[in-house]
């Protein structure tokens, strides 16, 4: 049975080592030959490295012989020439390994980041609502770094270590099998101690990785909301909160580091134990004339080299497990099925007229809180419909279901008779334009943000859409005009300016279905009147759904749908709903009526409207040209 973990309302599958390695392999596979050549080069270099001390053994054996000095010197010269040639091969193999490694790792890291991004960005709206942006960015970057760490440790540490262990045991066994056995037993004990201890310590490494993500997420969240913190004097409160998570991180990290110190102590004991045992047996065999002085040199070189590499094995194991813990968080996302996905038979939608029908539509959050109940509604082609109701009534959920940002828990939505659950999400959203209440822009130029509605648009088309949305009124004051960067999330623009950019983007997209989510809420009255004209032109001939809180903006809608507590409680035109007794719409209208009823207009307001009418006439030519 697959174990799962629940985090922030999301049920993540349990990730095994094979899952992490499988995710890495998908990035490695296109460059598998570079990996093979790299591996061969490393193995060759280390085999030659182990052969070199054999010639040092011969060197010292010859020195210990009494004889013709000239002949001895000649033989010693031949040996050092052989050693130089072998070291040359070691140098060559390592240079080849570096070349292959550079190509294989950089390419794989780029692919892993791209694969992570491609899968991550397709997750649902609710997934991103339940995760900090900073934590997700951290997971993608850690995943790539984890691969680099694991690859370095395996290729440059573990592989050479095992090649040298095998080579040393073979060579020493040819000299004395009992000494070789002592070395082998010591190596097994050393490795088992490191692996078992590191495996036991893994749970603490995972906790360290998780608390690090939590710290990063908290930091990103507070920096994003820095303005809110200042406005509500939350600096001390947030500082205390951040201190709590960093203190927790320090506590977990301290525990992990203390365990590392215990491991290093065990390694130190095993290191001096092998040196004592090895030379104890070597001295006994030398005293019996079974080995030469050169063997002492050979064993000293081998054992010092092995101790050095095995001592580093602690770091290798620790880094490998840390890399696993880091990669695990991203692989959880890669293995997490999409909440909303196209069916295997999904087709592209064909929108001819733009009729929208909701049949027995229901939706519940996490199957516990019912947001919409048995919605039945038909929006005719080209009809302009407004959704009104109290906050939390279900208006926004209604629209998100149409966009398939959520999946309905009951019933279905049809566009021109096509069930949207059976069509591709890409083709569905291609046929819907939306102007959100609080547009968030890319940290790119105004032209790029507007052009996002129809990528590949000509500059003239973008500028025309910007003019129709009256963006030209503020663009002319920007240092680089339409090529000005708007800052992260569009912070360099006011709320009203961002809304105009979003309207321009929708104008440029020119989709058959239009959704306006209080699209003029951040505009002043004069700007709203001008842009309302552009919106009227944009809505012409398009099926339009408007979410409205300011009821003055929807009087001319073909139909007004009143939603309360997830249900449609009344519908009709503005006049029809006002004529009904005990109408919720009438109550909402009465609450807002003082600000915009015709009978209450002052002479100044009437003069202002006359001026706005003149502005309309001036803008008609500009609008009609689009």
Task: Look at the helices and sheets and give the structural class.
Answer: alpha/beta
Helical residues, percent: 55-70%
- Average residue pLDDT: 81
End-to-end separation in angstroms reads 60 Å
Tell me the fraction of residues in β-strands, as a range: 5-15%
Low-confidence stretches: 594-626
Give the oligomer, counting copies of the same chain as homo and different chains as hetero. single chain
Question: Main beta sheet, described?
Answer: 6 strands, mixed
What tags apply to this protein structure?
six-stranded mixed sheet, elongated, 63% helix, four-stranded antiparallel sheet, disordered C terminus, alpha/beta, 626 residues
Can you describe this structure?
By secondary structure, the protein is of the alpha/beta class. 63% of the residues lie in helices and 11% in strands. The protein contains 19 helices and twelve strands. The chain has helices at 17-28, 32-63, 69-120, 125-129, 133-175, 177-224, 226-231, 235-287, 293-335, 395-402, 425-430, 446-451, 459-468, 472-475, 495-509, 525-539, 574-579, 584-592, 603-624, and strands spanning 4-7, 10-13, 356-365, 369-379, 384-388, 410-415, 418-419, 432-435, 513-517, 543-547, 559-564, 567-572. The chain has a six-stranded mixed beta sheet, with helices on both faces. It starts with a strand and ends with a helix.
């Amino acid at each position: 049975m697959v174990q799962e973990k629940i985090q922030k309302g999301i049920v993540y599958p349990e990730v095994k080592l094979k899952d992490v390695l499988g995710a890495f392999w998908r990035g490695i596979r296109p460059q598998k030959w570079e990996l093979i050549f790299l591996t061969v080069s490393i193995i060759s270099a280390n085999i030659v490295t182990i052969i070199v001390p054999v010639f040092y053994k011969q060197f010292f054996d010859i020195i210990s012989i009494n004889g013709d000095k000239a002949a001895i010197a000649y033989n010693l010269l031949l040996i050092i020439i052989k050693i130089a040639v072998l070291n040359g091969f070691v140098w060559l193999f390592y240079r080849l390994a570096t070349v292959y490694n550079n190509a294989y790792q950089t390419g794989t890291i780029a692919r892993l980041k791209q694969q992570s991004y491609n899968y991550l960005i397709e997750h649902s709206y609710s997934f991103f609502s339940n995760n900090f942006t900073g934590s997700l960015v951290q997971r993608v970057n850690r995943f790539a770094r984890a691969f680099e760490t694991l690859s370095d440790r395996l290729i440059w540490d573990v592989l050479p270590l095992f090649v040298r262990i095998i080579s040393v045991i073979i060579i020493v066994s040819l000299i004395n099998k009992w000494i070789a056995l002592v070395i082998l037993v010591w190596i097994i004990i050393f490795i088992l101690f490191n692996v078992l201890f590191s495996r036991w310590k893994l749970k603490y490494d995972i906790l360290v990785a998780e608390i690090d993500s939590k710290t990063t997420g908290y930091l990103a969240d507070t920096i994003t909301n820095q303005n809110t913190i200042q406005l509500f004097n939350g600096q001390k409160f947030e500082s205390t909160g951040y201190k709590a998570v960093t203190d927790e991180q320090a506590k977990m990290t301290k525990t992990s580091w203390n365990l590392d110190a215990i491991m290093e102590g065990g390694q130190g004991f095993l290191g001096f134990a092998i040196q004592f045992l090895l030379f104890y047996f070597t001295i006994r065999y030398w005293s019996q004339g079974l080995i030469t002085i050169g063997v002492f040199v050979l064993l000293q070189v081998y054992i010092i080299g092995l101790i050095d590499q095995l001592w580093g094995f602690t770091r290798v194991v620790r880094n490998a497990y840390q890399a696993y813990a880091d990669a695990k968080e991203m692989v959880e996302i890669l293995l997490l099925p999409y909440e909303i996905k196209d069916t295997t038979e999904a087709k592209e939608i064909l929108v001819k007229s733009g009729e929208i029908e909701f049949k027995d539509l229901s939706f519940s959050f996490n199957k516990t809180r019912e947001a919409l109940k048995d919605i039945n509604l038909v929006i005719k082609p080209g009809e302009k419909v407004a959704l009104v109701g109290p906050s939390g009534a279900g208006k926004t959920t209604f629209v998100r279901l149409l966009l398939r940002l959520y999946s309905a828990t009951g019933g279905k939505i049809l566009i021109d008779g096509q069930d949207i659950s059976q069509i591709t999400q890409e083709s569905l959203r291609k046929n819907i334009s939306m102007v959100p209440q609080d547009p968030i822009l890319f940290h790119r130029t105004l032209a790029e943000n507007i052009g996002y509605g129809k990528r590949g648009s000509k500059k003239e088309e973008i500028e025309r859409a910007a003019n129709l949305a009256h963006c030209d009124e503020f663009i002319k004051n920007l240092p680089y005009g339409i090529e000005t960067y708007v800052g992260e999330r569009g912070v360099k623009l006011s709320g009203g300016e961002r809304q105009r950019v979003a309207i321009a983007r929708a104008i440029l997209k020119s989709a058959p279905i239009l959704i306006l989510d209080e699209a003029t809420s951040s505009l002043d009255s004069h700007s709203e009147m001008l842009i309302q004209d552009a919106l009227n032109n944009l809505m012409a001939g398009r099926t339009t759904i408007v979410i409205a809180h300011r009821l003055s903006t929807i009087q001319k809608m073909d139909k007004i749908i009143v939603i309360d507590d997830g249900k449609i409680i009344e519908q009709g035109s503005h006049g029809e709903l006002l004529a009904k007794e005990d109408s919720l719409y009438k109550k909402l209208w009465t609450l807002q009526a003082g600000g915009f009823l015709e009978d209450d207009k002052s002479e100044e307001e009437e003069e202002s409207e006359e001026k706005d009418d003149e502005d309309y006439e001036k803008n008609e030519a500009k609008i009609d040209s689009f």
